[in-house]
Amino acid sequence: MTDEHISDNDIQQYVLDKPNCTNAIIEHVDICPSCKAKAHIYQLLFSAIKHQSKPIFEFDLAGLVLSCITNHKPANSKATSLVWPFAFFGVCSICAIGYLFGQHLINMFLSIPSISMYLVFTAAITLMCFQGIEMITKYKKKINKLDFG
Ligand SMILES: [Zn+2]
Q1: How far does residue 16's CA lie from ligand 1's centre (Å)?
Q2: Please, are residues 108 and 115 in contact by the beta-carbon 8 Å criterion?
Q3: pLDDT band at 99; cut points 50, 70, 90
Q4: How far, in Å, is the centroid of ligand 1 from the Cα of 49?
Q5: Over 70: is that where the pLDDT of 110 sits?
Q6: In the chain, which end has fewer C-beta atoms inside a 10 angstrom radius, N or C?
Q7: Residue 1: predicted pLDDT
Q8: CA 11–ligand 1 middle distance (angstroms)
Q9: What is the mean pLDDT of residues 83-104?
């Protein structure tokens, strides 16, 4: 037995996990009235904590979160309002290029050897597959983060 009292951490370990305590701790607590009293107090504290009811919010947390999600407004509505004019301009540009240079474009693609076209299509399809897999993986991760129920 040591002359000094054991630390509070050792007493807590004695209360919570007595089989894994060292013999010195067990012997000291069994002999020392002060440490035995502390152990008893910790025992009462831990049992009170264990029997405490789980805290419940006084408000509807799920309802508040859902209202925030459904009422979410885009932060930059001015930028989103510019999307449609730019999209219209882009579509018009593509149509104009097709109308003006369509025959030249067709001749350009016909003059490229077919093996080169297959290589380009293979690379494009492979890239699209990887992009799709990455997008699905990110989507699943986000859904898993949201799925807290
Ligand atoms: Zn002691």
Answers
A1: 17
A2: no
A3: very high
A4: 24
A5: yes
A6: C
A7: 47
A8: 9
A9: 93
Ligand 1 centroid, distance to 5 Cα (angstroms): 4
83 CA to centre of own chain: 30
Domain chopping of the chain, boundaries: 8-50, 96-149
pLDDT class of 76 with cuts at 50, 70, 90: low
Say which residue the tokens 């050792």 belong to.
10
d(CA 30, CA 18): 12
Is the predicted pLDDT of residue 13 greater than 80, yes or no? yes
**Six token digits for residue 37:** 């009293």
Q: How close is the Cα of 21 to the center of ligand 1, in Å?
A: 15
